[in-house]
Amino acid sequence: MNSQELSRLLQSLLDGQISVADGVERLKHLPFEDLGIAQIDHHRELRQGVPEVILGESKTLEQLQIILSAMAEKNRNVLVTRLDDKKGADLCTRFPAGEYDSVARTFCLIQQKIAMTGRGKILVICAGTSDLPVAREAVITAKMLGNDVEELIDVGVAGIHRLLARQNLLREAAVLIVIAGMEGALPSVVGGLVAAPVIAVPTSVGYGASFGGVAALLGMLNSCASGVTVVNIDNGFGAAFAANRINRKME
């Protein structure tokens, strides 16, 4: 339930269009619903403006189906992240209205039109095609949260002219998510070119000395460019969630 739905419910109760019992029935699963294997936070959209997101990694297919069913019954849009192809295909069979993205490893079930709540555009930039899974997770998450999103792919520092040729696109963005592995230099370059907030995402892409993304993480944390904020390794979802809060229109 979001604030608009709660306002309509209370107005209907005030106008006598529904009974107190009907109102209680509508509200009985707030603030959460205990499923035994999980406690679904139906109150989160009311508190934070966006519903709970399901982390698919390490959950069984049965657990995912139970959780997703409980959320879908409330006629909400649902996002599941970090799914393998088998779980994604099985969820598409169980919920045929949903869509699985094998690159992003996400499953989206859209039951209501997504309200555009962003005040500007979020630009997701990735250094190389190998970083694309993290970038796509960020893109899909930001879109599900109601943002206008654009991608800029394979513009890393090994061929910086590819990035410099798109400076107009960089400057049009309200928030930029910059994703890179190896030494993780791209966010510093972008941070030196734009006035908007830059959210850096290190990826686990790289050879031995990249230490599974730690080298990129440390490089980004030590960026000389002002206004660069860093999230955890491979955390496209976290970057998109932060970008959404920065970009969200004030109510």
How does this structure look, described?
This protein is of the alpha/beta class. The chain folds into two domains: 31-109, no CATH class; 121-247, Rossmann fold (3-Layer(aba) Sandwich). It is 38% helix and 17% strand. The protein has helices at residues 3-14, 20-27, 44-48, 61-72, 85-94, 132-144, 161-164, 167-172, 186-191, 214-221, 236-247; strands at residues 33-34, 39-40, 54-55, 78-81, 99-101, 106-109, 121-126, 148-153, 175-180, 198-202, 228-230. The strands form three sheets. The chain has a five-stranded parallel beta sheet. A four-stranded mixed beta sheet has the order 3-4-6-5, with helices on both faces. A two-stranded antiparallel sheet has the order 1-2. Helix 9 (186-191) links the parallel strand 9 and strand 10 (198-202). The longest helix is centred in the middle third of the chain and has 13 residues, at 132-144. The model has no long low-confidence stretch (mean pLDDT 88).
Q: Give the CA-CA distance, first to last residue.
A: 17 Å
What Rg is obtained from the alpha carbons, in whole angstroms?
20 Å
Low-confidence stretches: none
- The total count of helices amounts to 11
- H-E string: HHEEHEHEHEEEHEHHEHEHEH
Q: Count the strands? A: 11
Sheet with the most strands, sense and barrel status: 5 strands, parallel
CATH topology of the largest domain: Rossmann fold
Overall average residue pLDDT: 88
Biggest sheet, spatial arrangement of strands: 8-7-9-10-11
Indicate how many domains the architecture comprises. 2
Shape: globular
Percent range of helical residues: 25-40%
The first-level CATH class name of the largest domain: Alpha Beta
β-strand amount: 15-25%
The helix/strand class is alpha/beta
- Based on the coordinates given, report the CATH architecture of the largest domain: 3-Layer(aba) Sandwich
